[in-house]
Amino acid sequence: MDSKNITLILIITISFFSLPAYSQQQQTQQIQNVSLQQNLNNISKPSFNINWSELNLTAEQSVKINQLDEEWKRIQQVIRPRLVRDQQQLKNIMKNPDTDEDRIRKLQNDIMLRQKQLRYEATENFLSKRRVLTPEQREVLHKKIIP
User: Fold this and answer.
1) Can you say whether the dihedral through the CA atoms of 5, 9, 12, 14 is positive or negative?
2) What is the phi/psi pair of residue 68, to 5°?
3) Angular region, 45: left φ>0, alpha ψ -120 to 50, beta rest
């Protein structure tokens, strides 16, 4: 066998054995993308789902709770897109072996600050809703609705 044939066989063999690794890498990337999206979706969701109707709200309380829900949606509409953008950008720059470490750290810090801001705003929103309730409704909220 001449050297051209040996080289060709070697290239085909390497390519053949590299395909499963490449496929595994694609699967891992897809899993990471799904995981990132799930984490992102959970950032702004409370760890419990409150059914406010179980508290027998007055019409005035219902209006105020709905206003606070709308306020929460507006806050999320500002912060979430930035968070998604930063997370995507971090994912992309992490693929580049030449990316400056300070840039990575800054972007990671920005992500953590946005996550912290969302959690803070979610807590403040919940506390605002809780202030709308009577003491009896708060008791029901904390005993029956929030496990």
Assistant:
1) negative
2) -70, -35
3) beta
Q: Hey, is 47 helix, strand or coil?
A: coil
| Residue whose structure tokens are 């929103």 | 125
Tokens standing for residue 61: 């309380």
Compute the residue count for the chain: 147
Question: Which uninterrupted H or E stretch holds 34?
Answer: helix 3-43
Q: Are 80 and 44 in contact (CB under 8 A)?
A: yes
Half-sphere exposure of 61 (CA within 13 A, CB side): 15
- 68 closest CA partner among 56, 52, 82: 52
Q: How far is CA 21 from the centre of its chain?
A: 28
| Per-residue tens of pLDDT for the chain, all 147 residues | 666 666 657 667 676 665 555 556 566 666 655 555 555 455 445 556 788 888 999 999 999 999 999 999 999 999 999 999 999 999 999 999 999 999 999 999 999 999 999 999 999 999 999 999 999 999 998 887 777
